[in-house]
Amino acid sequence: MSSRIILIGPPGAGKGTQAARLSEALGIPAISTGDIFRANVKGETELGKLAKRYMDAGEYVPDEVTNSMVADRLAQDDAAVGFLLDGYPRTSAQVDELDRILAAEDTAIEHVVELTADTDEVVARLLARAQTEGRSDDSEDVIRHRLDVYEEQTQPLTDIYRSRGLLRQVDGLGDVDDITERILSSIR
Ligand code: ADP
């Protein structure tokens, strides 16, 4: 079975946690643009140096940079059976690029899963994560800014995918296993 899935939702909704489980359950790679950027920051690559400025400010990395990184990643062999995108697309220009990449391969997205969680909950989770993981973009003011950017630039993408009949909304609050089950049943 091949599946091409997008996981969308505000910072702190639990996309990364669920992406790892879904990848395992479905046998497809989880591709997280945030993780790829963080690996580049850690490795001090040119891409990492560029991305870090935006990430630390809670801003999106410019579309041209993100788009070409994703195009390269999707061209790798393991993505031929399907993939789960976590954190991409986040802007309407990224939606267009993804459409173009997939159309060139004669494929398309099958499901867009929106993981929902209210603002107080996600802020609390991100502040707790700041304590344990020490991510440089998890300070309270940067968190608030990331949430504003999400609402302004990414939330509207759910309307695009709803109009294509692809949107599945899943409550991101509750037990982690239950949420995985909810997502799996939403795409069955
Ligand atoms: P979160 O969604 O929890 O904020 P991510 O790990 O998904 O965290 O992303 C961290 C940062 O990486 C974002 O704030 C942004 O700067 C950058 N980033 C990740 N994905 C994208 C994307 N698709 N477009 C632009 N920037 C991105």
Explain the overall architecture:
The protein is of the alpha/beta class. It has a single domain, classed as P-loop containing nucleotide triphosphate hydrolases (Rossmann fold, 3-Layer(aba) Sandwich), CATH 3.40.50. The protein has helices spanning 15-26, 33-42, 46-57, 63-74, 92-104, 119-133, 140-154, 157-163, 176-187; strands at residues 3-8, 30-32, 82-86, 111-116, 167-171. The chain has a 5-stranded parallel sheet with strand order 2-3-1-4-5, with helices on both faces. α2 packs across α3 and α6 crosses α7 (140-154). The longest helix is centred in the last third of the chain and has 15 residues, at 119-133. The model has no long low-confidence stretch (mean pLDDT 96). It binds adenosine-5'-diphosphate. Keywords: ATP-binding, Cytoplasm, Kinase, Nucleotide biosynthesis, Nucleotide-binding, Transferase. Its main location: cytoplasm. ATP binds at residues 12-17, 129, 174. It catalyses: AMP + ATP = 2 ADP. Catalyzes the reversible transfer of the terminal phosphate group between ATP and AMP. Plays an important role in cellular energy homeostasis and in adenine nucleotide metabolism.
Question: Which helices and strands appear, and what pairs or packs with what?
Answer:
Layout: E1 3-8, H1 15-26, E2 30-32, H2 33-42, H3 46-57, H4 63-74, E3 82-86, H5 92-104, E4 111-116, H6 119-133, H7 140-154, H8 157-163, E5 167-171, H9 176-187
Parallel strand pairs: 1-3, 1-4, 2-3, 4-5
The structure holds adenosine-5'-diphosphate (ADP).
Residues 11, 33-34, 37, 54-55, 58-61, 66, 87-88, 90, 94, 137, 146 line the site of adenosine-5'-diphosphate (ADP).
Function: Catalyzes the reversible transfer of the terminal phosphate group between ATP and AMP. Plays an important role in cellular energy homeostasis and in adenine nucleotide metabolism.
Enzyme class: transferase
Catalytic activity: AMP + ATP = 2 ADP
